[in-house]
């Protein structure tokens, strides 16, 4: 009997497929641009560098969600690790709360940036005339996803507080069992 994939597994697969496609498309465009630049310079398009930047920056921003979700983002642990577990737990609660607030604020202002660019009808300067609001959309989407991942972690930390369990900040990342439950 075949086990059905859970929602978490489907989301991870879509995310991996999307990020992989974006990076591979950027790599293909870079390769194409190099070949054209050296062998057929008169045929060089003015939009390839622009699209490469859109793909790489969007992929970088969207990958932030995975890093926050897996607790693999940049952290300053040198000082925090010197405290006892209960204090580390509350420091982690504060840090994650700041993460929720910061990512929510960037998502909010990113949405305003998208609306502003769309209302002005701003397009790129290349022959592609790409509407920049579409590119800007990666900011509110990626930061909203990161805020949601931080919020889930904050709720887990507060649930641990309620149960009286304090683990180190690194241990607040989902365990393999928790990750399996998320996948369905």
TrEMBL record:
Example of a GO MF term: transmembrane transporter activity
Domain Tripartite ATP-independent periplasmic transporters DctQ component, chain residue ranges per copy: 28-158
Pfam families reported in the protein's UniProt record: DctQ (PF04290)
Annotated organism of origin: Notoacmeibacter marinus
Positions of transmembrane segments: 7-31, 51-68, 89-110, 130-152
Keyword Phosphoprotein: no
GO biological process: C4-dicarboxylate transport
Signal sequence extent: none
Chain's role: Part of the tripartite ATP-independent periplasmic (TRAP) transport system.
Membrane topology reported for the UniProt record: Multi-pass membrane protein
Keyword annotations of the record: Cell inner membrane, Cell membrane, Membrane, Transmembrane, Transmembrane helix, Transport
Record text on subunit structure and interactions: The complex comprises the extracytoplasmic solute receptor protein and the two transmembrane proteins.
UniProt family annotation: Belongs to the TRAP transporter small permease family.
Protein name (record): TRAP transporter small permease protein
Protein localization: Cell inner membrane
GO cellular component: plasma membrane
């Amino acid at each position: 009997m075949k086990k059905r994939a859970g929602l978490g597994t489907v989301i991870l697969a879509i995310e991996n497929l999307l990020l992989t496609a974006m990076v591979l498309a950027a790599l293909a465009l870079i390769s194409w641009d190099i070949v054209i630049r050296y062998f057929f310079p008169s045929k060089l398009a003015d939009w390839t560098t622009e699209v490469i930047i859109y793909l790489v920056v969007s992929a970088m921003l969207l990958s932030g969600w995975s890093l926050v979700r897996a607790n693999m983002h940049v952290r300053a642990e040198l000082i925090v690790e010197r405290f006892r577990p209960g204090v580390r737990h509350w420091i982690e609660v504060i840090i994650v709360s700041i993460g929720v607030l910061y990512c929510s604020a960037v998502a909010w202002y990113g949405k305003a940036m998208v609306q502003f660019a769309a209302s002005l009808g701003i397009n790129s300067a290349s022959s592609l005339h790409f509407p920049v609001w579409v590119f800007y959309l990666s900011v509110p989407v990626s930061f909203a996803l990161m805020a949601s991942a931080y919020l889930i972690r904050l709720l887990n930390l507060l649930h641990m507080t309620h149960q009286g369990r304090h683990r180190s900040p690194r241990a607040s990342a989902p365990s393999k069992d928790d990750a399996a439950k998320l996948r369905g």
